[in-house]
Amino acid sequence: MDTKELEKYTSKITVRNMENEDVEVVNYSPLTMMGKGRQGAVFQYSDDICIKIFGNEEDCEREHYALSLGQQTDLFPKVYAKGPLYIAMEIIRGVDLREYLQSQPLTEELSMKLIDLLVTFKEIGYERIDHHKRQIFILPEGNLKVIDVARTVWRDRVYPYPRKLLTSLGKENKEIFLSHVQALHPELYSEWTHYIEMEEQARQICQKIMTESTDKETLKNKSKKLLTTNEQKIYTGQLESLVHKVFKEEWVKAMLVQGYDPDKVMDTIEQHMEKLTSKETLKEKESKNTDTEKTEEDVKSKNKNNKEEKYSDKDGFLGYRNKGRISENDRYYGFRNERYSEYPIKEKENKNKNYGRKGKKNRR
Ligand SMILES: Nc1ncnc2c1ncn2[C@@H]1O[C@H](COP(=O)(O)OP(=O)(O)OP(=O)(O)O)[C@@H](O)[C@H]1O
Ligand SMILES: [Mg+2]
């Protein structure tokens, strides 16, 4: 074939790939365009030969490779020449399956030809044993030919059944085709229907997973309620408690190492803290109400009274629970002792009653 003439024409045609659209074509050659798609445009070169011009070299290589695999069969157009961006091939004359089925029934004979086509795909080494009905042509003699085969090779993942062909047939013809497959080869039929079911299940699982991630989004919004830094007053209180707790823990630990009685240390800290709190409360009250004349002593004595009132319970205050009884473990983690050290034992207390940390409500 005279490739010089071919190249003279192809140099006058520019094909550009577009995103999710058919290629864009600028044609200064005398050739007539027969059709185009996402990868290239096809021009009539002679009565029997067309030239497919590609938007990029990789697509051209890929289609040429796929066509070359099938040259020994009579299913594909014959290839006459190739350039970096074009393939000259046989013109396929006939009607494509999409058009054909609009007016004709899917007979068992046609289904057999389609199954045979898939077998040929497998035999020649295509990775995707599948094709869209618009790329399958029925020739006047009744045999099939396929075009646009680039996507049958160099693939990572493919469906394990001819999904594209089945879905492109449409609901009714898909059922008819599958019934023909079932009659011909029940095992092949159950394999394909198995994959179809698996695919449906995979879809449902996928939808479930996607709904769950929406739930996560809802929880993310709800969990904002746990935030404490956005309100200055709450944040200050939380921070103060935190520092207070750490200080107490560290102080008790340090004093324990030096051999001090942890209870005494705790009491001293508590008293100190209460003093500080009283000072602050007093200051607050003074700034709020300058008319009320209250001294620090008043507040101190009130706190003392409150404490005594709370513990010198008329119905049976006997002292502090477990005071002085510290396990080795508690001694090490001195702070744990706080649980036992300061809540009153009552004579008639319910043993199951959970005093726990609540027994020390006044602590922060
Ligand atoms: N060998 C051929 N003989 C006759 N017509 C052809 C031939 N090859 C392609 N055509 C016509 O050109 C059109 C575009 O070709 P083709 O489908 O190969 O392009 P494509 O860009 O690879 O398509 P896709 O976007 O599906 O990949 C076809 O629909 C068909 O009408
Ligand atoms: Mg293509």
TrEMBL record:
Residues 276-316, 325-352 have a biased composition (Basic and acidic residues). Residues 354-364 have a biased composition (Basic residues). InterPro entries: Kinase-like_dom_sf (IPR011009). Residues 276-364 are annotated as: Disordered. This is Protein kinase domain-containing protein.
